[in-house]
Amino acid sequence: MNFLNTTQARPAAGPPVLRPWRALIAVLPFLAAVVAVTAVFWSVRDRIPEPLAMHFTSDGTSDDFTTASHFLTVMLGLPAVLGVSIGVLVLRDAAAGALRGAIATGYAMAGLFGCLGVSLLLQNVDAGDAAAVRFPPSYLGLALGVAALAAVVGGLCAGRDRVRADEVAGPARPTPPLGLADGETAGWSRTVGSPTLVVLGPGLLAIGVLIGLAMNWVGAVGFAVAALSCLVFAGVQVTADRRGLTVASPLVPRPRLRIPLARMEEAGVQQISPLGDFGGWGYRLRGGRSGIVLRRGEALALRLTNGRVFVVTVDDAATAAALLNALLTREREKRATGPGQED
């Protein structure tokens, strides 16, 4: 029995599209946040207590303290990491179709970090005892308002995302079956990631850290769980073989989705717009269709025996569809001949 390795059939990808000016726009708010916090710290460094108040209860009373060096590490290090991450995504066009959202999210994170960092420093100014420093909850509301405003500014500065002609959503097109010899076994596998979740995960984690440091860690748990979910499911491995279609996280064994050949009628290729077709990203359900939608563009589309359609966005979907159609044809021929009529 031969094994046909279709995982090497993917055509060579072209060089990444570099977008230096858009990447500069994406990084600017993080630079501004770092400069603002650094400038304020430098101007008041002789007027703040050591250690300074860093953590506060829900009523604004300080209950934990940190050194100036630790404060700077958190308030300058996290924005720097986020800024570099988003800048690289935008520079290499790795968030194709979601660049505007990535830039707007970056602006919001930078605004949140900058506002909280400056506010914490100013509240510590001229405090003889750090335990007497207060950070009213309204300051956190102000920081969130600044973040929202910064997100609007970021979206406007980013401009509209370009949509290539081959990314326009359309109906699934049938795919001819792959030629398989008698007794030949074939397998296909790809890993696909979601630029949106890659950006959203660190962003939620950053918000959680800030809330934990500024208010309390109980309020940060929800953001930490959401961030972990985004990062775990920011990529999935899609496999097509004699068992059918399997979609699973490459990081954890469960959850795993499997659609056996017995539930399939036909496989094809479809162009997907996450917002236009499914209203968002992730595991989606809408009007007779379901699927795992991680990005815009090419998707493997399965017409199931119950009349529904299942899609998963993945590169080289045509090869997966051709393989599944070949395996479906083979299964139907086996059922038609019957076990007693096989050679």
TrEMBL record:
Transmembrane segments: 21-44, 71-91, 98-119, 139-158, 197-215, 221-240
Keywords in alphabetical order: Membrane, Transmembrane, Transmembrane helix
UniProt entry tagged with the keyword Cell wall biogenesis/degradation: no
Protein name, per record: DUF1648 domain-containing protein
